[in-house]
């Protein structure tokens, strides 16, 4: 069976998503059915009362006087039905909120497990739109359509049975015309489903494009291209608005068609009952096949007979939107992050670990070699500089050390294969700093406590002094200094120093750096390298950098050669990754 056949459909994914919420949805369905039963009782009481008053007004002796409980029962029905409807809405919203929260947690966990490999599934902007916008697109399906699809079957059957007790012909007319509503709902809804799916795809692309422009705003300002970028965003927004109006037109068309056919069906039933009361039916002239009380009862139920079908048609676009959203989320949900089967905790303590790589190789899609076979040892407390051209596998090596990438060959930590270690426990022994520091919107203290939640203010001030950032912050609001999105308020070098403070708080014995000075000017880069030298003493360091200025303090250097398009780890000779002594460079691997 092919992978495409094994992949679940969007409808199956929605069913799995809603499985834990079925008790809330069943409760909502039960309340809605209770409201339908109260509707039947309310219609019968109204019909009986109006029939009695009509006969009394005409001076005829009513066959049965109203019971004393009729009016209180009618008042109870009128009061309880809105309460049952409110309860149904509350339970449906609860199911929707919990289901979307669970799905969002699953997506965030999947992104965390993928690590840097998440780039295969879109830019950060597109992934953010999926996690936020497309998950919220399930709300209408869960909160309205799911229960309504059951009511569209059960309520017409219940009301049709009640009508059949008074007029089988009227019940037959209602049951015969009822399929027209879902028929046209499907015909018109298919077009709305396709338009909604295309709209979600456009929204994801627009979100990614906007985030890319926002991140590059500094570059755009220096190039004087902000006006051009603004025009592009305005044009894309206008195109999105136009497509949104197109989707709304289809949705309104669907609702109009459903209203037309349901009104036509109700008019047909009313025509039959009216002609029958007048005694001018072609096949029963002079006869009244349905008495006034029963006719009024049927007319009161007729709109409610078609109401669930009409509401289902109005909510049909919610199903189309939800299926489109699940279709967009499918690649991320089907992603298979590398999860080693064996689970062993790494050695505890603050001493740096020993790393041993033997013929370590990484491969991408189609067998493409991302890192040529590498043999390397990193002693505890040793600091190593890794250099090489773009595509030589520097970042891939860090991904392997972080435990996010499957690898060929051997990668041991203190003599234990990395694939056998518990990833979360291993991450607690690592400190990682890339080109973009992990700074969130909030105060400086909040950002520092991401690494050490229990740290006190005195400890935070001490690490800020060690990274030479406290004198600047003390002139502002100290630890309460608020940073904007992506660390707005501090320069690039200052943000990297704040990230170094986070590493110090984490007390990780092994530090990994991926081009930490890539976006800094030479002076700021040299200053940051000097800080890393002082702060990383008695720790193991593996630093990836194109630049060597200010890095003469490293113990060894390793130059990676670009791998071939495909490489076989078994073909690599031992010690192909011989590292040079201090201030020397030797190619690490030959393609």
UniProtKB/TrEMBL annotation:
Primary localization class, coarse: membrane
Domain ABC transporter, residue spans: 355-588
Keyword Membrane recorded: yes
CDD domains hit by this protein: ABC_6TM_AarD_CydD
UniProt keyword list: ATP-binding, Membrane, Nucleotide-binding, Transmembrane, Transmembrane helix
Intracellular or extracellular location(s): Cell membrane
Residue ranges constituting the ABC transmembrane type-1 domain according to the UniProt record: 27-321
InterPro entries: AAA+_ATPase (IPR003593), ABC1_TM_dom (IPR011527), ABC1_TM_sf (IPR036640), ABC_transporter-like_ATP-bd (IPR003439), ABC_transporter-like_CS (IPR017871), ABC_transptr_CydD (IPR014216), P-loop_NTPase (IPR027417), Sigma_54_int_dom_ATP-bd_1 (IPR025662)
Protein name, as recorded: Thiol reductant ABC exporter subunit CydD
Region (Disordered): 570-591
Organism this protein belongs to: Halomonas mongoliensis
PANTHER family noted in UniProt: ATP-BINDING CASSETTE SUB-FAMILY B (PTHR24221), GLUTATHIONE_L-CYSTEINE TRANSPORT SYSTEM ATP-BINDING_PERMEASE PROTEIN CYDD (PTHR24221:SF261)
Low complexity bias locations: 570-581
Keyword Transmembrane: yes
Ranges that cross the membrane: 28-55, 67-84, 151-167, 173-193, 251-284
Membrane-topology descriptor: Multi-pass membrane protein
